[in-house]
C-alpha cells in the first residue's frame, strides 16, 4: 500500500478506478537514466514487482501459480515491450513482435507447466530449497525441454521465427 501511496484495504481498487476515470496520475515508476527518460513516471521505470502486484490472477486461481505467472508475463510484455520499448524502437521485426511470442499461443504455457511439474520432485509448490543448485536444475531442465520441443515440432520454430523470440520464451518459462 505504501508503495502505491494509496489507502489500505479494498479502497485501493476504488482509488485506481477513480484515478483511471478522471485521468489522474498515479506515480509508481522509478526515475530512469536521463538518456532513456522522456519525463517522470515512465513505464520503463515501473518495477516488475508492481506488475506482479497489479495482476490479480492469483486471487481468482490461488492453486495455479503458473497461470498467475503467465498473466504477469503477458501484462509485462504489453507494457514494457509493446508500449514502452515500442515507442523507442522502429524498423526491423519490431519490438511489438517479440512480445506476441509470449502471450498469443500456448507454447510458453506448455513450457511453464512442464517446469512446474518437474519442480514437484521437490514437493508441493513453493517447497523447493532456495539454493542456486535448485535454480540451475530447474532452469536447465525447462530450457532443454523447450529446445527439444522446438526441434520436435518445426511449426513452433515458424511461430517463434527469430532466435531472440525463442530465447525470450525459454527465459520466461
TrEMBL record:
InterPro entries: Me_CoM_Rdtase_asu/bsu_C (IPR008924), Me_CoM_Rdtase_asu_C (IPR009047), Me_CoM_Rdtase_asu_N (IPR003183), Me_CoM_Rdtase_asu_N_sub2 (IPR015823), Me_CoM_Rdtase_Fd-like_fold (IPR009024). Pathway: One-carbon metabolism; methyl-coenzyme M reduction; methane from methyl-coenzyme M: step 1/1. It catalyses: coenzyme B + methyl-coenzyme M = methane + coenzyme M-coenzyme B heterodisulfide. The keyword Metal-binding applies. It comes from the Archaea. One of its GO terms (molecular function) is coenzyme-B sulfoethylthiotransferase activity. It holds the Pfam family MCR_alpha. Residues 1-33 form the Methyl-coenzyme M reductase alpha subunit N-terminal domain. MCR is a hexamer of two alpha, two beta, and two gamma chains, forming a dimer of heterotrimers. This is coenzyme-B sulfoethylthiotransferase.
